[in-house]
Design brief:
Layout: H1 2-35, H2 39-50, H3 54-57, H4 69-72, E1 77-78, H5 84-100, H6 109-115, H7 128-131, E2 137-140, E3 157-160, H8 173-179, H9 184-198, E4 205-211, H10 216-222, H11 231-244, E5 248-254, H12 257-263, E6 271-273, H13 283-290, E7 294-296, H14 301-310, E8 314-318, H15 333-336, E9 342-345
Parallel strand pairs: 1-3, 2-3, 4-5, 4-7, 5-6, 7-8, 8-9
Bound molecules: 2-acetamido-2-deoxy-beta-D-glucopyranose (2 copies).
One 2-acetamido-2-deoxy-beta-D-glucopyranose binds near residues 318 and 319.
Main location: Golgi
Keywords: Glycoprotein, Glycosyltransferase, Golgi apparatus, Membrane, Signal-anchor, Transferase, Transmembrane, Transmembrane helix
EC number: 2.4.1.-
């Protein structure tokens, strides 16, 4: 007697369940259809799920079937050009601008290869199979922050240029410094080396000295109407620190170590020519000066980054090009050197006509 009644009672429940599941399937279907608008999207999801490389699984922080929140926020990246200082600048600029515009930043495999051997960087990497399939919109940056960079449009933006100015990322400098944390083995090796330089002394103040030579020795006078750091500049900068810290020692790295040995006075016993000058693997030299307490830099983004990471006092070569140099089209001193850094003007007399 009671049995049919109980069946009658359960029938609507069954119907409700059926209707509910039909609606769910239809909405899921529609959702997937909507995403099919981007043909590469399907390819990407398929490719990503067949990847076995663990590094690449971070590209999709999601479970199969649910489009990732990160992918919804687009894919922003930056070109991977130049050497260490440029690569760091491109990375930091992408990190900051993507965040500012509410998009997810990813780096190209080449940049990952360059920077991840030195630093504990965290931005996910775009699998190389995907790079060519994404409909990038290139967006060129000059090397200083501008109002329009707060409103860059596009879901698949590739920033281009050689940006490294602190004006892009100084407002989040703690995060940027965190990204450029050295791997433990590099830090340990560097600490050991610096301790060795200290010798029997109880305390020393380490001054990292980066002397940029190499291609710039020709580029500066011939292309940029400028000079590179000379003997006089380095002497003035070193004397500033010698007067301030009685225990200062100078740790010199350069891609022109021979010039340094001939032009930096080491007779006081406080100068160490520490750099190996290997441009192909710049990480060791860079770590050395970035771990010093203060910095003397000359020119170039490598020195600027070493100073930024070291975080103490920085002396830089100022006004090293003639007025009207084409350099000012791509370089704005106030956006390259932090306001608290100390500039020593260059001697431009080698560029002036001989009287
Ligand atoms: C100076 O640098 C050395 C080497 O990195 C470090 O051990 C020391 O704590 C620093 N000193 C100061 C005062 O920051
Ligand atoms: C560089 O030149 C500018 C313009 O002449 C001047 O204002 C500035 O003080 C100079 N910088 C240094 C460090 O001498």
């Amino acid at each position: 007697m009671y049995l049919p009644e109980r069946r009658l009672f359960s029938r609507p429940t069954l119907v409700i369940c059926l209707v509910f599941f039909s609606l769910l399937s239809v909405s899921t279907f529609l959702h997937l259809q909507k995403n099919n608008y981007y043909p590469w999207w399907r390819i990407s999801i398929k490719n990503i799920f067949t990847l076995s490389n663990h590094e690449h699984t971070s590209f999709l922080n999601t479970t199969p079937g649910t489009p990732s929140k990160n992918l919804d926020r687009g894919i922003w990246t930056v070109n991977s050009i130049g050497r260490l200082g440029n690569q760091m600048g491109e990375y930091a600029t992408l990190y900051a601008l993507a965040k500012l515009n509410g998009h997810q930043a990813y780096i190209l495999p080449a940049m990952h290869q360059y920077l991840a051997t030195i630093f504990k960087i965290t931005l996910p990497v775009i699998p190389s199979e995907l790079v060519g399939k994404i409909p990038w919109k290139n967006y060129h940056l000059h090397n200083w922050m501008s109002e329009e960079y707060h409103h860059i449009q596009g879901k698949y933006v590739r920033l281009t240029g050689y940006p490294y100015s602190y004006t892009f990322y100084h407002h989040i400098h703690q995060e940027i410094l965190q990204e450029f944390t050295f791997h433990d083995y590099i830090k340990e090796e560097t600490d050991r080396y610096l301790l060795q330089l200290r010798g029997q002394r109880k305390e020393v103040t380490y001054i990292g000295v980066h002397v940029r030579r190499g291609d710039y020795v020709n580029l500066m006078p011939n292309v940029w109407k400028g000079v590179v750091a000379d003997k006089g500049y380095l002497e003035k900068a070193m004397n500033y620190f010698r007067e301030k810290y009685h225990d200062a020692i100078f740790v010199v790295v350069s891609n022109g170590m021979d010039w340094c040995k001939q032009n930096i006075d080491a007779t006081k016993g406080d100068v160490y020519f520490a750099g190996d000058g290997r441009e192909s693997s710049p990480g060791r030299d860079f770590a050395l000066i970035a771990h010093c307490n203060h910095t003397i830099m000359t020119i170039g983004s490598y020195g600027i980054w070493a100073s930024y990471l070291a975080g103490g006092e920085t002396i830089y070569l100022a006004n090293y090009t003639l007025p009207g140099s084409p350099h000012f089209k791509v370089f704005k001193p106030s956006a390259a050197f932090l306001p608290e850094w100390i500039g020593i003007p260059a001697d431009l007399s080698p560029l002036l006509p001989k009287s």
